[in-house]
């Protein structure tokens, strides 16, 4: 079991390593303009430098800011989105009214809302978190209501015949039954809010955040820091997806035998 | 009949949303929440005498089409090649998994340094947004093609290219469409984001962003509505019509709704 896990990680890391080696060779041999291409070793050095930085924000502080914003946005979106999704899934007439609005607003990219929110509530955290929440909200609502609608009606009927009251049906039948869909919505919400927070940080952040750091580095044509930021973003996301989300799925829907 | 009913309901809903919005806007400060009337007025101003809005839309559409087409062609090709060659897949798959985790917008600062402001950066961002989901899904689709089909086609003498065109692609069409749909969503996001950061004069994202400097909230609302309508058009009309003509006609998915 353990060996398989290590094997899996190795077979994922090896091609990445190969990619970095090729990049390094191109950089060292000066095949392309190195001021624009940088080198993996330089990027790695820069990450160390940015961790130890004393005169400005460290890369860890920037990451922490982005992660905090994403977490708050995701928390808000999940709370509001799940509640509304449950309501929509249970009440058909409310769903019919709100569904067209949701389907219209859902594909609008989160970042498109940013200028509006900047005008309304100014630069900084309020705008970044609001837009992040908004972008995660739609997939969560949509998938929650879809999950509730997808529950086999016969299960609900039989539990109610056996004497379960409405509250119990929601808690013990409807919620667990729609959990695979809710998890999908949550996963999409996480991806969306993370992307949106990074994007809005480029437009509206005043103090920090990975998006801010990368966009700020552009002003000084500091490619190395941009690469460092991009690589860190990918690693952070992969880490969260492969630990937190996997764990969540294992603890809930996998244990209940809903997916294999 | 049910469809007609749905349409009437939707129209009634849109009307009531507009009326409600107008009422709220009248009660609140005009500056922060523009009324539908002022958005409509701004729309007319942006179309006549100078068709600025149409220029923005045309420019964005042009960029989207170029970027997305490149993503589609390259994405499908990479997906097919890595789906056919097992060894190549072992290398490409993890790289793709890594690249797909990078928010598309994060490429924009890099592209701004490498190629500068303007069209090239925006189109490259659109390409990067669409490419990975398309390639990833194409490759997944190649994996699930029934090997018996391939063997049968080979025995009957189909050559490589023909085999790909007539067996692999139709058989993996559901994945192709999933990829194309995801890809256009990602491309849209990339387009709007990149236009805000890198456009120099036109584009719908640029319009929204530039409106901020003049506190022109009606124009921002208009921009959001235009994006909503255009994404609806690209997804529902473009992709769904391909879906109907291929996998639904071939009976690969069950029609629902």
**How many individual β-strands of chain A?**
0
Strand content of chain A: under 5%
Question: Unreliable runs of chain A, pLDDT <50, ≥5 residues?
Answer: none
Helix content of chain A: over 70%
Q: What sort of overall outline of chain A do the alpha carbons produce when their principal axes are compared?
A: globular
The ordered string of helix (H) and strand (E) elements of chain B is: HHHHHHHHHHH
CATH class of the largest domain in chain B: Mainly Alpha
Q: What count of structural domains of chain A?
A: 1
Number of strands of chain B: 0
Structural class by SSE content of chain A? mainly alpha
Radius of gyration of chain A, in angstroms, nearest whole number: 22 Å
Number of helices of chain B: 11
Report the CATH superfamily of the largest domain in chain B.
Answer: MetI-like
Describe the structure.
With 260 residues, chain A is mainly alpha-helical. Chain A has a single domain, classed as Orthogonal Bundle (MetI-like fold). Chain A has helices at residues 2-28, 34-37, 40-52, 59-90, 92-105, 110-121, 125-149, 153-161, 166-177, 179-204, 210-219, 223-254. The longest helix of chain A has 32 residues, at 59-90. Chain B has two domains: 1-33; 46-248, MetI-like fold, CATH 1.10.3720.10. In chain B, helix 3 crosses helix 10 (204-213). Chain B starts with a helix and ends in a 9-residue tail after the last helix. The chains are: A mainly alpha (260), B mainly alpha (257). The interface between A and B is large, with 51 and 51 residues.
């Amino acid at each position: 079991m353990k060996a398989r896990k290590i094997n899996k990680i190795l077979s994922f890391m090896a091609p990445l390593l190969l990619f970095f080696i090729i990049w390094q060779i191109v950089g060292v041999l000066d095949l392309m303009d190195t001021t624009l291409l940088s080198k993996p070793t330089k990027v790695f050095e820069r990450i160390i430098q940015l961790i130890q930085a004393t005169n400005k924000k460290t890369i860890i502080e920037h990451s922490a800011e982005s992660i905090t914003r994403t977490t708050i946005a995701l928390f808000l979106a999940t709370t509001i989105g799940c509640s509304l999704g449950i309501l929509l899934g249970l009440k058909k007439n409310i769903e019919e009214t709100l569904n067209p609005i949701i389907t219209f607003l859902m594909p609008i990219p989160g970042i498109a809302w940013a200028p509006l929110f900047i005008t309304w509530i100014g630069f900084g955290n309020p705008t970044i978190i609001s837009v992040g929440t908004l972008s995660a909200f739609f997939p969560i609502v949509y998938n929650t209501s879809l999950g509730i609608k997808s529950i086999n009606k016969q299960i609900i009927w039989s539990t109610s015949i056996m004497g379960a009251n409405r509250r119990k049906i929601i808690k013990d039948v409807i919620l667990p039954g729609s959990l695979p869909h809710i998890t999908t919505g949550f996963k999409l919400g996480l991806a969306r809010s993370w992307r949106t927070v990074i994007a809005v940080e480029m437009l509206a952040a005043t103090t920090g955040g990975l998006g801010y750091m990368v966009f700020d580095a552009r002003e000084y044509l500091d490619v190395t820091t941009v690469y460092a930021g991009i690589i860190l973003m990918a690693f952070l996301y992969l880490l969260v997806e492969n630990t937190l989300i996997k764990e969540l799925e294992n603890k809930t829907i996998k244990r209940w035998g809903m997916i294999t | 009949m049910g469809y007609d009913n749905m349409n009437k309901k939707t129209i009634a809903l849109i009307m009531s949303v507009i009326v409600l919005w107008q009422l709220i806007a009248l009660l609140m400060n005009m500056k922060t929440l523009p009324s539908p009337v002022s958005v409509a007025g701004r729309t007319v101003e942006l179309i006549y005498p100078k068709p600025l809005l149409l220029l923005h839309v045309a420019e964005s559409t042009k960029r989207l089409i170029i970027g997305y087409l490149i993503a589609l062609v390259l994405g499908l090709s990479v997906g097919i090649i890595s789906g056919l060659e097992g060894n190549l897949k072992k290398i490409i798959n993890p790289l793709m998994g890594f690249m797909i985790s990078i928010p598309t917008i994060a490429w924009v600062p890099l592209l701004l340094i490498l190629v500068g402001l303007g069209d090239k950066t925006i189109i490259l961002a659109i390409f990067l947004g669409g490419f990975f989901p398309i390639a990833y899904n194409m490759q997944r689709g190649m994996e699930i093609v029934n090997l018996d089909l391939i063997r049968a086609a080979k025995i009957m003498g189909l050559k490589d290219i023909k085999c790909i065109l007539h067996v692999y692609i139709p058989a993996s069409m559901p994945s192709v469409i999933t990829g194309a749909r995801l890809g256009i969503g990602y491309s849209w996001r990339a387009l709007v984001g990149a236009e805000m950061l890198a456009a120099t004069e036109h584009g719908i994202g640029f319009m929204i962003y530039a409106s901020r400097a003049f506190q022109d909230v009606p124009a921002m609302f208009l921009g959001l509505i235009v994006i909503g309508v255009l994404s609806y058009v690209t997804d529902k009309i473009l992709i769904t019509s391909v879906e109907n003509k291929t996998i639904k006609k071939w009976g690969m998915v069950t029609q629902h709704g």
